[in-house]
Specification:
Length: 352
């Protein structure tokens, strides 16, 4: 049985105090909660220290779920940062491990994934958008990534990327967001996740020094880290589902209890939540991470998140259909989650 994380090692009180008041601004006014994310690092919630892999993953996955339970946009941003931490924790590049990793864990700098296009490339869905040319002491990178989240154009943000080279191999590296030749244009007006600080990132002969190269063999590196990339996504959906269960319970007495006639009840969603979370937790206890099995659990989570939010809308009735309501926000977030790389259709391809 997987051990539980103690309340004192969870960020629940900080989330309630600092994040909950921001949720409407994040959703409706494109507010990017950078100070909240940095605060998580300052309070040690990203620090690995002398902890085991199991303890680090347990704490960080619970953090993603707890944040997403209040605001999935911010839970997604925490995942973006954890993806960057995963790259830094698994690289053999000593500069990244000694210089960038401690700053990412402390929240001094924030990280992003930049791997939406590469994941689709490795899934045989897209071509790689970036090209890297070897030069003295680094690479010159050109091309365009259509969407990178959790970034700002300053020296406090870094994101990972994969680029192909003229020699036929692929490299993976970090790009500082204040790099010369990197142009960033913000993307807004999504159905959900407008506070996600998502940008189009155009590389025009951007020099990336060797000190920021994560791996000269991106194919092998991505194969090694992609289970973690996907595992950290699962609690995003679980957090939203947990919130829908609570909301459905609160709506039980509406209109003299007519919700009892609806075919799907909170208990049905909760049963599936418990089953999916149990599947998720088994991966922590496994010596080898099964990519296809993880993909199956993420797929189940995505469908459950859609079911949970749609059920919540029906149980809450007319009040849920206000744009500013929590149920309608979660419904929109769920549709983003279904399209988060790897998307539902990509996951269906992986698991068949």
């Amino acid at each position: 049985m997987l051990k539980e994380i103690s309340p004192k090692h969870r960020a629940v009180s900080y989330i309630q105090k600092e994040l909950k008041p921001l949720v409407r601004s994040i959703d409706m006014k494109h507010y990017y909660p950078a100070s909240f994310l940095k605060g998580l690092g300052e309070r040690g919630f990203f620090s690995s220290g002398d902890l085991s892999y199991e303890d680090v993953f347990l704490r960080e996955s619970q953090l993603v779920e707890d944040v997403s339970r209040v605001c999935m946009t911010t839970g997604f941003l925490v995942w973006c940062h954890l993806a960057a931490l995963t790259y830094a924790r698994h690289t053999t590049n000593e500069h990244i491990r000694k210089e960038l990793l401690p700053r990412l864990e402390s929240g001094e700098i924030l990280g992003a994934t930049g791997l939406s296009n590469p994941m689709k490339f490795y899934g045989k869905l897209e071509k790689l958008h970036l090209h890297a040319e070897r030069v003295a002491e680094g690479y010159v990178v050109s091309g365009c990534l259509p969407a990178v989240s959790n970034v700002q154009q300053n020296g406090e943000h870094y994101f990972g990327f994969v680029a192909h080279t003229d020699t036929g191999n692929r490299i993976m590296a970090f790009a500082p967001c204040n790099s010369t030749g990197l142009t960033m244009k913000e993307k807004r007006d999504y159905l959900g996740l407008n506070g996600s600080a998502t940008f189009v990132c155009q590389f025009e002969a951007v020099f990336i020094p060797d000190q920021y190269v994560i791996s000269e063999d991106a194919d092998a590196f991505v194969s090694r880290i992609r289970p973690f990339f996907l595992l950290y996504q699962i609690p995003i959906g679980l957090g939203v589902v947990r919130a829908t269960i609570e909301s459905i319970h609160r709506a039980k007495k509406k209109q003299t209890g007519v919700n009892a006639y609806l075919p799907v009840q909170a208990e049905d969603i909760e049963q599936q939540y418990n089953k999916t979370k149990a599947s998720f937790q088994t991966f922590l206890q496994s010596s080898e991470l099964d990519w296809k099995g993880i993909a199956k659990t993420k797929l189940e989570t995505a469908y459950l998140t859609l079911q949970g939010t749609q059920t919540e809308m029906l149980h809450n009735g007319g009040a849920a259909y206000l744009m500013k309501s929590d149920p309608s926000r979660r419904l929109r977030e769920a549709y983003f989650y279904a399209n988060l790389t790897p998307t539902i259709k990509h996951l269906e391809k992986i698991t068949h």
